[in-house]
Amino acid sequence: MTTFTLSTFLLLALLFHSTKAAVFTIRNNCPYTVWAGAVPGGGQQLNSGQTWALDVAAGTQGARIWPRTNCNFDGSGRGNCQTGDCNGLLQCQNYGTPPNTLAEFGLNQFNNLDFFDISLVDGFNVPLAFNPTSGGCTRGISCTADINGQCPAELRAPGGCNNPCTVYKTDQYCCNSGNCGPTDLSRFFKERCPDAYSYPKDDPTSTFTCPGGTNYDVIFCP
Asked: Which residue windows are coiled coil (predicted)?
């Protein structure tokens, strides 16, 4: 029979605590249906006013939640979306197709901090807010400008507004070499949504942190 010492019990308790999931409450405040996509998490149809509570494991990296619009799915969960489509699946297994507004995050990273951001590097389709709701963390972020209505002609796409990287795929806009700066087209996004990533190297003004274990709201059309 295994004998549990106090130190073993404390270690198990610590491991249990460290793997506690964060809860992301995804709310659709838009006057139209939005199909939420999430990696990890899959996806769910959210009619106006509906919410989806998503548990995400501690230590998760490279995660994102995004809105999909004008979708049609059959009974097996196959179909397509005009924006944010993920290989024609209701339950996303990979990131969505631009343009789509992104809520990105990594949990329990450096110094046990959560890192979170709103990114327009894949363009914009639906206004979005990303707000911590626990842990004493109060600094939320949002992108609520009428980017679709004001989108430059060269970036317009059905249902959304593309980021210039998506359209031109050059190092100037995509930072493929790891060295680039803001452009007139990226400034279009930054001026309207100063908290959001407007190009891939937009870290200093666009990455936010909360203590690990914080819960969050992701709101479409806040």
From this structure: none
